[in-house]
């Protein structure tokens, strides 16, 4: 299937992950699921559960990645929204056939975690849209 199944998560760019984690966990009260370094995406990620969806905090590992560029241009805040798909590759193909600009020519596989691609904000009216198939 190549249509979105649900809202997977909202991605939020942060400058300081541990401060942001304590805000979302201790003040807002979300359940922290994991903290992981994803070298492929040049970020450290904290994932929180909210019902059937998640909040993903993204802290850049270096000053030259996509999230670091976002932070220096726009400051901390909502970076992308992500939809769950049963098949990230066929979803990417379908969206490309519909004339949308995809960030990766093929899905990026983060072993054991997920397959992802992104629809460029140029194609969506300003929202970076992540295509996710969860492998975990
Ligand atoms: Zn994401």
Walk me through this protein's architecture:
The protein is an alpha+beta fold. The chain has a single domain (6-134), classed as 2,3-Dihydroxybiphenyl 1,2-Dioxygenase, domain 1, CATH 3.10.180.10. 23% of the residues lie in helices and 40% in strands. It is built from three helices and eight strands; from the N terminus they run βαβββαβαβββ. It has helices at 17-28, 66-74, 88-97; strands at 6-13, 31-38, 43-50, 53-60, 77-84, 108-110, 114-119, 129-134. The chain has an eight-stranded mixed β-sheet with strand order 2-3-4-1-5-8-7-6. The longest helix is centred in the first third of the chain and has 12 residues, at 17-28. The model has no long low-confidence stretch (mean pLDDT 95). Bound molecules: zinc ion. The site of zinc ion has 6 residues, from β1 and β5.
> Count of DSSP E strands?
8
SSE string, helices as H and strands as E: EHEEEHEHEEE
Rounded to an integer in angstroms, the radius of gyration calculated over CA atoms is 15 Å
Query: Hetero groups bound?
Result: zinc ion
CATH C-level class is: Alpha Beta
Please give a handful of descriptors for the protein shown.
136 residues; single chain; alpha+beta; 8 strands; 2,3-Dihydroxybiphenyl 1,2-Dioxygenase, domain 1; eight-stranded mixed sheet
Write the layout of secondary structure elements.
Elements: E1 6-13, H1 17-28, E2 31-38, E3 43-50, E4 53-60, H2 66-74, E5 77-84, H3 88-97, E6 108-110, E7 114-119, E8 129-134
Parallel strand pairs: 1-4, 5-8
Antiparallel strand pairs: 1-5, 2-3, 3-4, 6-7, 7-8
Bound molecules: zinc ion (ZN).
């Amino acid at each position: 299937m190549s249509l979105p199944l649900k809202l997977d998560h909202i991605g939020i760019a942060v400058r300081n992950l541990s401060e942001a984690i304590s805000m979302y966990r201790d003040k807002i009260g979300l359940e922290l699921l994991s903290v992981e370094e994803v070298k492929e995406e040049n970020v450290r990620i904290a994932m929180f559960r909210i019902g059937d969806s998640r909040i993903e905090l993204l802290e850049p590992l270096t000053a030259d990645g996509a999230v670091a560029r976002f932070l220096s241009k726009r400051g901390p805040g909502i970076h992308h929204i992500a939809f769950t798909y049963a098949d990230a590759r066929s979803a990417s193909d379908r969206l490309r056939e519909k004339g949308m600009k995809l960030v990766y020519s093929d899905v990026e596989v983060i072993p054991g975690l997920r397959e992802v691609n992104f629809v460029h904000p140029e194609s969506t009216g300003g929202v970076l849209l992540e295509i996710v198939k969860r492998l975990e």
